[in-house]
Task: structure prediction
Amino acid sequence: MKAALVTGVGRDNIGFGAARRFVERGLPVVAVDVRPPAAEVAERLAAGAAAPVHWLAADVADTAAIETMAAEAFALVPGLDCLVNAAGIADPTKPLEITPERWDRLMDINLRGTFFACQAFARRLVAEGRPGGIVNLASMAARTGGRSNGLHYAASKAGVVSITLGLGRALGEHAIRVNAVAPGIIDTVMTRDVVPGSIHRAKEAALGRWGTIWEVADVILFLLSPESGYVTGTTVDVTGGA
Result:
């Protein structure tokens, strides 16, 4: 690992946790969110950093914005070799009430955005002949059908699992590993706002508690590290035994 591009870096979410773990290890980070961060978020991410932290604003639902993001990120940090696709939304709309607009918006961000971010990143590594790693954010919902955060959310995350497997196969010859993490009930602002009964749901896990963004971030960094050098195309559950 030399440097990371992390999408979906917002307040106390998994993207923030992953970006912060890189910073703590003295690795440069390009942090991306749909809009510029609040000053407090930017300050907390960079606090005590021994390496630069760059911020970019990009909407991953827009493929042109993804291309611009990738070009700017590689210009800012030429040694970039890790991508964490953490940008995503949930929508607890009941299945019979999901509109085409809601379906498309969620798929555009969670699935389409993830794939084309992978593509833009991997194309640059292949062109430069460099190895690298990608971790995508899936979800336990991919295997449960989305109990409370939207059937279309679950479908998007099942798609993330599938493209992770396919890209892992396709990019192996270029020494680019692609994996995913599938979190369970993690204590984030989105979970508390979007998942009904999230506190009760967290207690259903075998460990009987919320997961933290740091526990997910640590698995992400493991999947990007040399210690997982023979792991690709895999989705790792981080669910506390849910």
Remarks:
- The CA atoms of residues 119 and 137 lie 15 Å apart.
